[in-house]
Amino acid sequence: MSARTVSHLRKGEKGIIKSFNNRAMSLKLLEMGCLPGCEVRLDAIAPFGDPICINVGGCYSLSLRLNEASVIELE
Amino acid sequence: MKQVNIKVALVGNPNAGKSTLFNDLTGLRQKTGNFPGVTVEKKSGTFRINAEEVSNVTLVDLPGTYSIYPKSKDETVVMDILANPKHPDFPDVVIVVADASNLQRNLLLFTEISDLGIPSVLALNMLDVAASMNLTVNAVQLAMQLNVPVVRINARTGEGVNNLKEAVRQVARSSNKRAMQYFYEPKGHEMELIEEVKGLYQLDNDYVALQYVCQHDNFSFLEQPVRAKLDTLIEKYGFDENNFLAEETVARYEKIKPIVSKAVKSEGASERPFWTRKLDSILLHQVWGYVIFALVLLLVFQAIFAWATFFSDWLDATAAQGIEWVKVTLPEGVLNDLITDGILAGIAGIIVFIPQIAILFALVSILEESGYMARVMVIMDKLMRRFGLNGRSVVPLISGVACAVPAIMTTRSISSRYERLLTILVTPLMSCSARLPIYTILIALIVPANEMVGIFSMQGLILFGLYFLGLVGALASAWLLSLFIPRKEPSYFMLEMPSYKLPRWRHVGFAMYESVKSFVLEAGKVIMAISIILWVLASYGPGDNMDVAEQQTIAAMPNASQEQIEAAVASIRLETSYAGEFGHFIEPVIKPLGYDWKIGIALLASFAAREVFVGTMATIYSISGDSEDVPTVKQRLVQERNPDTGGQMFTPAVCYSLLMFYVFAMMCMSTIAVVYRETHGWKWPLIQLAYLTVLAYVSAFAAYQLLS
């Protein structure tokens, strides 16, 4: 069974970042402040279900596509 | 008093308030250009620090970035300057602007800049936002831990800006370099690699040497042999860049975490403003999101027509009076004709559109300022992907409504080369403000001003329709082109959503002022040149053709009044002039579109820039018409008769055909030039010119044939 990722979150649901499953993308996410141990919450879903907006660590809002969100694995 | 010149660079995360601070510091003493050798737009400005010696500071605003490792073309410029002390913009001091409400992430960039060894000042912005999230930031504590001056500022109110200037002055003055203290220290075998690079290229900073290794392909100042040598070194030490970068970033955060937890006190729940989330739930809504976006766009176009008309009419009348005055005041003769019928007539045709352009740029910048544009990118991303584009392509497309040149430059924030190219190729289809004069005049000819559909004026709706047609054309072409151009890299979309803000009116004012200034100056230059050339071509003809034709005309009209003869003579002289010959020469090509040779002259002239079209019409018709008084361009066009039918020349069929032509045609030298620069070659601008010309011709042809 594959790990639970941010793309599995439902609206309003929270999760804690555990790791990333894609090296190239993980650097980008790290630089934007998605750190392991950080809490994320799914805030909004764009029309047609993609991209999504997540709140990172309670301090800012990041929008990303579903396939990018599936890189972020949750605890 | 001593004068000191220093150079300062401004860096920071996107949305940290960098541009606002830039405006606070430099006010109207700013200009835009290009960084030497690269095509990225450069904003620079000057300010003074008055102390015992006067410091003249040149401030350069660098592109917003999350780290010194670039993710898009725009961001490569940051390190191209900061890693190269020989660069003309290499700063004496760097101001790092940090968003206090998100300090941990913002300090990542700061520690990287600091490790490069350039003296820096940390400007702590958005403390009010942090306060609203129950966060208090202790600047003194932060300054002690980071070992740099930290200045609390509020870029929106201008608070703390004087302290910031003072801090910059002190940092610039302290000549004795402090001992380098790195936030990040590489491990053993990386150290050996760094030492070798330092030795080879006479570098004294470890981190700069490391950047030579990691980023040499982005550094324009490194020659090919140097790059090749660095590649062999990477091989020799088995340096894995991807792994290393992730490790470095994590290590930096490890170091930043305790610093932040000491300096930032959190009391109670911290959360973004409630209404930002509330607004997002509406503006990103499945249905409402699009409805509101459509309404916003419709409002923009209504505003261009409804609000601007009053000013435009006034300017139009004033310009006509002004020309009249010049015509009467100057002694009669060739010079008088050249100035009034040639140059001034052309320029007056353009001045009229200043209000519309000002309003358009103001509205686009308000959309950007308020944070709404980021939401538009999100709701459009999935749609745009179908056409091979990206949510970020929305900004160039919307900016293209103002002008394709800066719009094409904004494509540099798109990290995928492929999506960027597609966006560049289709952006000129968005109706730019230079098309507004043409649209406005032609729409005014076919639709009465008072015709309404509900609360909207018919003219506004048709205008909206033309813009919409441009958008549809852009998306359809993107899709078609994507079938032919192979995609090589994956597509990304990661975007920080700024919280909603009230637009800073000063900023909007700057945008308006800049756009109007460059429109009047740039368009003015081209129009003046073309007006002079046209006037000469229209006033003189090959051999004595003009005189012969004049004699014949007079001989053929023995019973006509003086006035009728003068009008007929003016008209026949134009027809036999060089310009007339030229117009007749291309007539076979444009006849199927419903155009005569006079429109042909204007069409050809406007290949340089679209706005020339109206100016040329003004010049041509003021030369051919009777010159008793100076009517406005619109009046001249209404009076124009079709020599074949005797009816109005500008029938709905001709007007719609012209509208179609200008919706699609790529008639703008500046755009071609900017596409050449951005794609580094003639291939893409030529392909673009070709497909757009075909598209324009075919649709104009269809419009004329269907309607006449």
UniProtKB/TrEMBL annotation, chain A:
Which keywords does UniProt give here? Iron
Record carries keyword Iron:
yes
Pfam families recorded: FeoA
Annotated ranges, domain Ferrous iron transporter FeoA-like: 4-75
MF annotations from Gene Ontology: transition metal ion binding
Keyword Zinc-finger on entry: no
**Superkingdom assignment:** Bacteria
Q: Which PANTHER family match?
A: FE(2+) TRANSPORT PROTEIN A
What is the name listed in the Swiss-Prot or TrEMBL entry for this protein? FeoA family protein
UniProtKB/TrEMBL annotation, chain B:
Cite the GO molecular-function annotations of the record.
Answer: ferrous iron transmembrane transporter activity; GTP binding; metal ion binding
Chief location of this protein within or outside the cell: membrane
* Gene Ontology cellular component annotations, sorted alphabetically: plasma membrane
Q: Does the keyword Lipoprotein apply?
A: no
Q: Where are the transmembrane segments?
A: 287-308, 343-367, 387-409, 421-449, 461-485, 519-538, 653-676, 688-707
Q: Write down the membrane topology.
A: Multi-pass membrane protein
What keywords are assigned to this protein?
Answer: Cell membrane, GTP-binding, Ion transport, Iron, Iron transport, Magnesium, Membrane, Metal-binding, Nucleotide-binding, Transmembrane, Transmembrane helix, Transport
Residues annotated as coiled-coil are none
Protein known as: Ferrous iron transport protein B
Q: Which organism is it from?
A: Dyadobacter pollutisoli
